[in-house]
Amino acid sequence: MLADAQARELGLGSKIVCIQGDAHAIPLASNSVDRITCRCGIMFFSDTGLVMSEMLRVLKPGGRAALLAWGSSEQPFFDATVERVLQLVRGSEMPAQARTMFRFASPGSLEHELRAAGFCGVQEEGLTLPRIWAGSPQELWVYLQEVSTPCHPLFASIPPVLHAKVDAEVSSALARFRTGTVLEVPAKVIVAAGQRDLSTKSPSQRQHNI
What we know:
Elements: H1 2-7, E1 33-39, H2 48-58, E2 59-70, H3 76-79, H4 82-88, H5 96-99, H6 109-117, E3 120-133, H7 137-147, H8 152-156, H9 163-175, E4 178-179, E5 182-195, H10 203-209
Parallel strand pairs: 1-2
Antiparallel strand pairs: 2-5, 3-5, 4-5
Helix pairs in contact: 2-6, 7-9
C-alpha cells in the first residue's frame, strides 16, 4: 500500500510523505496532527485502547479522528464471496483472524471505544455504501483473494478440484451487482468520529502530571 501511495505522488512534489510505523507507537510528535483516518484497520489492532491513546497524543487540540470498520458479516459483499466458499468447501470455517473484521459490527461498540479512550464529541453511524469495482466480477474475486490476508487460510483450503466451481459461483454472485461497466456491491460499514478536546496537554502529559 505504501508503494502504491508513493507511486501516485507523481506531480504532487513533497506534499505527501509516506511513513511506515506501528500504530501502537505512532512515529509522530505529540500535538502535530490535524486529522486522522483509518479505513478498515481499527479492528485488527491488538490493543485498540493504546492505539486510540496514541491518536489522541499526536492530534492537536481540536483535532479529529474518523474510523471506518466493517458492519455485520451478513451482508451482500461477504455473502457473494466468503460465504460461497464456506458453503462449497465441506468442513471449512472462517479463520479466527478474519472474524475480527467484524469486531465493531455491534452498534455503539466503536463509539464506546473512542469515548473510553478520551475522545469527545463522538458520533457513530451505520451505513450501506456501494463497493465500486471498475472491472469484471472475476477480477474482483481475484483481487479479494490477493488482498484479504485474514481470509488466506480459508482460500488456501479450497481443494484444486473445486477451484473452477468456486470461481464460477462467486463470479456469478458478484455479477448480480453489475451496473453498466462497473460493479456496485452493497457493503455495510460502521463510521465513527471523535475529537480531541481543546486542552493544550496531550493524554500522556496529563498522566505524567498526575
